Each structure stands twice: as C-alpha cells, then as structure tokens.
Amino acid sequence: MLAFRNITATPDDPVVDWGPEGVLTALERGGLVPIAKLARAALADPQGEVAGWVLEAAACTDRPIAGLLAQRIREARDPAAEVARRVRDAIARSGLSLRAFAPLCGTSPSRLSTYATGKTIPVAGVLLRIERASNHQIATRSRPLNQARTRGTDTPLIAI
Fold it and tell me: How far apart are CA 128 and CA 138, in angstroms?
C-alpha cells in the first residue's frame, strides 16, 4: 500500500493534489493502482501540470515504469509519434510480419514501414484501416481458418 510522507495528500486524493513529491513517490514505490491512476491523469492532459511532474520525476528514478510512462507522455505530446506507436501496436497485435500485414491494410510494406517509424503520417482513413485490419486478424486467429470467409486462398477477407 502506497503512503506519502511529508505531504498532506493521500493516494486516494486526485493526482493533481499529490504534487511533484507525491508523483515521484508513486513512480518509485507505487503498485499497479497508483501507477494506473497517475498514468490516466498524466495522459488525460499530456501538456498539463501532472504530465510535467511525471517527466521530471521519471528523470530522477530508474524504475522502468517511470521511463515507459514518460515515453507515452512524450508521444502524446507529439501527434506523429503517437500515430507511429498506434501503427506499430496494430502490426504487433496482428501477429503478422509487416510484409504480411501491409496488403491486409491496402498498402505496401515500404509505405507501412514509413508509417510505423513516423517518417510519414497516414491520413485518418488509412490509420483506421490499419487498426481495423489488426482487430480483424485478432478475431480471425481465434476461429479455425475454414470458418473464415475466404476468396479461394487461405487469406481471410477483410471488410475495411
């Protein structure tokens, strides 16, 4: 159970009441519940005060979760990085290689690679196709291939 010292706030209070010292304490010693609460507050307003405290505190601790949360805040502050992360996550969730996943999204492997690295930002419709293709791959993996709709191949059709 996380407890703060030398501050009047408690972990049950809103994160903004914790102040920088409470945020550092949560990052250094907090379990899943306070870390999740902190992450929600910081990512709800990546330009805000709490997010700033997280970035400062993350620089003072070597706990891996602090670095991961700081990275997510930096990505949320940079829309191109956020989109690239979403593309990489979709590829990973699909369970396919980038080369195998790209045609399911209606794009080439080289173009998908530029989206995944952040060199190019896809338009909203393309990002939605990528995420839908990933979700479809997850759904089709959970049922036998012979139950998937096919077009004379082993590749399930995807409604995009």
Answer: 15
